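About this split. The held-out portion is used to measure sequence recovery: a designer receives only the structure tokens and must propose an amino acid at every position. Recovery is the fraction of positions where the proposal matches the reference. Here is one held-out target exactly as it appears in the evaluation file.
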């Protein structure tokens, strides 16, 4: 069992030979949690599992909430460890940062989220009822084509701010309109931990797993001291929504991505419904990438260019060889119109999403 408050025996009471033997039998490891260093003493043969158990007993952070960022080279480790016998002696010279919340902190966050989502009354006044003139079909589509669950990362600072950010994205008029139009339904929208997707060369802005099963967005700055620009994150979300249809970064993908960007700008009535910059579209700055393609089966699918066909949002394909961009867009629009006439109002068939790739 590790200890943090060991007293050093005096030279008079312990012979020098015994002191050398004691020093060789133990190692000291320092980890940083929320900016505070914690030093633990372990037997020389202790393993990473012993460190996890000590964190649980001394800091009250259960194993499922523990994440150890070990630099350099080792990277991120979390229980259950792939190598549960990894010796702590190999980590003595490395910088170890612990990310994780106590069970009490997680419970407090969950209570706050539940309380915030509970309707409240003020001075006996009942909450306003929906307008009777509201289109019931529109309300049904809003409930269906949206992000079912929003999840901030509870072990990062101020998760309630991240939750509000995710809510703003979900309720954005432009995003809602585009998701209805393409019939996108995403079970989970969550934030990305910058520490897990940052290298010396690049920073990943977003990820889409399994054609819209989960979308992760890089909300925070690299130093965890603030949040990135809202419109930058919203454009990243447009990019990841396009991966619901196309996994690779080919011509099909970029046509759909830019179509979604235009729709979001146009239908954002809070900003007057006018796009800024004409035909210019958002591109990440140097060192930042949207992603490396859509996640499929838990692995990256690398994008590739040079595709010779362009797919409409209804799944039709037209030849793109030798045509200008304006001609490609016009031809794709014609194919979407033809596909819509063929569908003839049939809803819920196939994948249940008009923007899904047809087999």
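Reference sequence for scoring:
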């Amino acid at each position: 069992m590790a200890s943090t408050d060991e007293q050093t025996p005096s030279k008079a009471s312990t012979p020098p030979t015994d002191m050398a033997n004691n020093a060789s039998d133990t190692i000291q490891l320092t980890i940083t949690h929320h900016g505070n260093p914690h030093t633990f003493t372990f037997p020389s043969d202790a393993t990473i599992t012993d460190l996890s158990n000590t964190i649980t007993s001394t800091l009250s952070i259960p194993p499922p909430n523990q994440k150890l960022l070990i630099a350099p080279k080792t990277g991120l480790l979390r229980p259950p460890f792939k190598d549960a016998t990894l010796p702590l002696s190999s980590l003595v010279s490395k910088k170890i940062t612990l990310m994780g919340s106590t069970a009490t902190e997680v419970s407090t966050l969950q209570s706050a989220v539940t309380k915030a989502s509970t309707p409240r009354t003020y001075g006996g006044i009942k909450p306003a009822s929906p307008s009777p003139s509201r289109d019931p079909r529109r309300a049904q589509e809003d409930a269906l084509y949206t992000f079912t669950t929003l999840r901030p990362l509870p072990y990062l600072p101020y998760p309630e701010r991240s939750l509000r950010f995710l809510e703003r994205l979900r309720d954005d008029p432009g995003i809602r309109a585009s998701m209805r139009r393409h019939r996108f339904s995403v079970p989970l929208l969550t934030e990305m931990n910058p520490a897990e997707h940052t290298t010396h060369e690049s920073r990943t802005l977003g990820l889409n797993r399994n054609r819209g099963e989960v979308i992760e967005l890089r909300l925070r700055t690299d130093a965890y001291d603030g949040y990135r620009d809202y419109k930058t994150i919203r454009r990243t979300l447009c990019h990841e929504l396009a991966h619901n249809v196309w996994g690779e970064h080919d011509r099909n993908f970029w046509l759909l991505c830019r179509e979604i960007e235009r729709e979001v700008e146009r239908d954002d009535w809070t900003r007057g419904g006018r796009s800024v910059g004409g035909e210019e579209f958002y591109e990440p700055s140097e060192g930042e990438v949207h992603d490396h393609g859509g996640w499929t089966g838990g692995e990256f699918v690398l994008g590739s260019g040079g595709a010779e066909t362009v797919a409409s949002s209804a799944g039709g394909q037209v030849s793109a060889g030798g045509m200008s961009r304006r001609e490609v867009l016009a031809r794709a629009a014609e194919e979407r119109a033809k596909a819509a006439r063929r569908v003839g109002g049939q809803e819920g068939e196939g994948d249940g999403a008009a923007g899904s790739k047809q087999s």
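Annotator remark: Residues 9 and 358 are 75 Å apart (CA to CA).
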